[in-house]
# Entry
Amino acid sequence: MLLLFLLLHFLSIKSSQVQGYTLDSRTPADNTSSRDLFTIIWGCLTTIFASTWVSVHPNVPPTDKSWLALFWRRLWMMVIAVIAPELIVGFAARQLYSARTSSEEYGVSLTHAFFFEMGGFVSQSGHPIATSKQLDEPLLGPKYLSAIKKIKVEDIWDKSKGDALSKGVALVQGLWFTTQCLARVYQNLPVTELEVATLAFAVVNIFIWMLWWGKPYNVQQPIPVGPDEDSELPGTTLSLLQLQQAARRKIGHSNLWERYRFVGAFMGIYRYNPKSSTSVPAFWSRIDAKASTQSVIIQCFVGILFGAIHCAAWNSQFPSADEMWMWRVCSLCVAVIPLLLLRIFQAGYVLDSILGFNIALVSVIPIYIVARILLIILPFMALRSLPPGALVDIDWTSYIPHL
# Structure
C-alpha cells in the first residue's frame, strides 16, 4: 500500500519542472511516432509480472490448504522474487544440482529427481519422501525407490500446470522487451529508469527459466508411493487428506526455524524432518557441499549482473540530484554486496566458508533490502519528469533495407 501511495502521489504532480523539463515539454515532435506514460508503465509491469510468475516454480504445497492460502503462498514467493530475485536463482541452482545428484545416485530421470526434491512423492501416511535418509533407510528405502521408479515421466508432467509453450511465451515477452531497450539505445533514445529495472528482472528470470526448465510447474497434488510408514495412524482406507490432517494433529506446533522456513533455508541452517510435516517448505531442497558451492557462485554472479544492469542508468537524467545519487548508491550496493559475499565464501572466513557466508549474509542483508526497495520506488518517482525523447517511439522502419 505504501508503494502504491507513493506511485500515485508522484504521478499526480502536474507542475513539476526539474532540469528544464516539465510534463508539458515531453511531447515528441509531430513527425515522429510517440508513446505515452501508460504504455511505458504497462509494458514494464506486464513484463515483470509475466516473467516472474512463470519463472518461479514452487515446491508441492500442502494439500489441506484452501485456494486462498495457496494463492498467498505463491504471491509471497513472487514478492521475494521481486525484492531479491537472485535468491530465487540460488534456490533454483541448488535444486537443479541436487536433482542431478539424485538422478545419478538413484538411477532415475531428472524429472523424477526434481519431483523428489520438490516434495512430489509422499508416503501413504502423507509424509514427503524428499531426503536421502529416507531412500537409504534399509527397511523402507528400497520400497520407496522401487515405487518411484515405476511412476512414468508422463504421469509426473501430467500434474504440471505449465508447459514449454507457456514458458516460451514469457521468454519471448522478455526477449522482446530486451530488444526494445537495445533498439532505443542504438537510436540514441532515452531509456527510463523503470525500463532499466525491468530489463534487470527480465535478464535474471532467463537464468531462473534455464535452471528450472526441467522442473514441473505449479504442481498441486503429490503422488503417494510405497508402504504405510505409520502403523499407528488410522487404517489405510482413509484418504490421503485425512491421513495428512491426522499427521498434522499428531506433530503439533513446529519449532522456531519451521515457523521461518525460508530464512533457515536460504541461510543453510534449516534442518527439515519430513516425518514432522505434510509438505516440504517453500524454499527447501536437499543440500550437499557441491550443490551449495555451485549454487552460491551462480547466485552471486547473477546478483552482480542484476546490480550492474541498474548501474547502466548511472548517467541517466533524474528529476533531482538526490534521486540520482540514491540510484547510484543503491545500484552499487546491489552489485557489490554479492561480490563481497562471493569473496568471503571463497576465502572461507570465520570457522568455515558456509558459516562465514551466513554471518556475512546476516550483516549485509538489511543494507541490501533497503537498496532493493529504493530501486523499486525510484523508477516510479522518475516518471514524473522525463526528458522529451523518452516519449519518442522506436523507428523500426530504419531496420528495413530500402531497395
